[in-house]
Specification:
By secondary structure, the chain is mainly alpha-helical. About 70% of the residues lie in helices and about 5% in strands. The chain has a 3-stranded antiparallel sheet with strand order 1-2-3.
C-alpha cells in the first residue's frame, strides 16, 4: 500500500523539480510561490550572498542573541541611558538584568523571522540590494504563515535555514504565542519602570 502511494508521488515530485528548475534564474534557486503568485528564491551558492544582506542578517542575529526585537532593544537601551544619566544605578541594574534574562526565556521569533526574510529573495526585489519595505512585507507574511501553520512551514528551504538553530517548522508555530507573551511582559515591565522614574523625578522637584 505504502509503496503504491510513493510510486504515485514520484512523478509529482519530478514535475515539481522540473518546474522549480525552470523558474530558477541568475544564481537564484526558485523555492515556492506565495498566494499572490510571486516566486520566492534563495541563492544557489552562499558565497554569492551580497555583503549588504549579510550585514542586515548579522544585525538581526544580534537581536536574536539579545532575546529582544529591535524596538524593544532600543527602548531598553534608551531607558538604561536615562537611568545612567541620572545616576539611578538601581533601576539601571533592573534594565540590565532584564536584557540578560530575556534570551533564556523564549526563542526570539521576531529576530529569527528577520534572519529568514534576508535569506529569501522575492520576485519583485533586487537580490543585490536591501529594501526595508519589501523586507518588512516578507516578515509580516512569514509571521502570518507561522500563525496559520501553513504550507510554508514544510518548505525544504525553510527547514534547511532553521537547522543551525535546532528548530523545526512546527516549533515556530508553538513558539509564536510564547514569544508574543514575553514581549508583552517586557513592555509592561519597561513601561512600569519608566513611570516609576518619572514619578520619583516629579516628587523630587516638588
Amino acid at each position: 500500500m505504502l509503496d503504491s502511494i510513493l510510486l504515485k508521488l514520484l512523478p509529482i515530485q519530478r514535475l515539481n523539480q522540473v518546474r522549480l528548475a525552470k523558474e530558477s534564474k541568475d544564481g537564484l534557486k526558485a523555492e515556492f510561490k506565495d498566494e499572490l503568485c510571486r516566486w520566492w528564491y534563495t541563492f544557489n551558492d552562499e558565497q554569492d550572498f551580497p555583503v549588504i544582506r549579510l550585514a542586515s542578517q548579522q544585525t538581526y542575529l544580534q537581536y536574536m542573541a539579545a532575546g529582544l526585537t529591535g524596538k524593544h532593544f532600543a527602548d531598553a537601551m534608551e531607558l538604561l541611558t536615562e537611568c545612567l544619566a541620572k545616576q539611578d544605578i538601581v533601576n539601571a541594574g533592573v534594565v540590565i538584568h532584564e536584557l540578560k534574562e530575556s534570551p533564556k526565556k523564549v526563542v526570539n521569533l521576531h529576530a529569527l523571522v528577520n534572519v529568514l526574510a534576508v535569506h529569501y529573495i522575492r520576485q519583485d526585489e533586487d537580490p543585490n540590494h536591501f529594501s526595508e519595505s519589501i523586507h518588512q512585507q516578507k516578515c509580516d507574511w512569514m509571521l502570518e504563515q507561522i500563525e496559520q501553520g501553513s504550507f510554508f512551514l514544510s518548505q525544504p528551504s525553510l527547514l534547511k535555514s532553521l537547522s543551525p538553530f535546532g528548530i523545526s517548522g512546527q516549533q515556530l508555530t508553538n513558539s509564536l504565542a510564547a514569544f508574543q507573551k514575553v514581549l508583552k511582559q517586557q513592555k509592561i515591565r519597561l513601561d512600569s519602570l519608566r513611570s516609576m522614574i518619572k514619578a520619583k523625578e516629579s516628587n523630587s522637584t516638588e
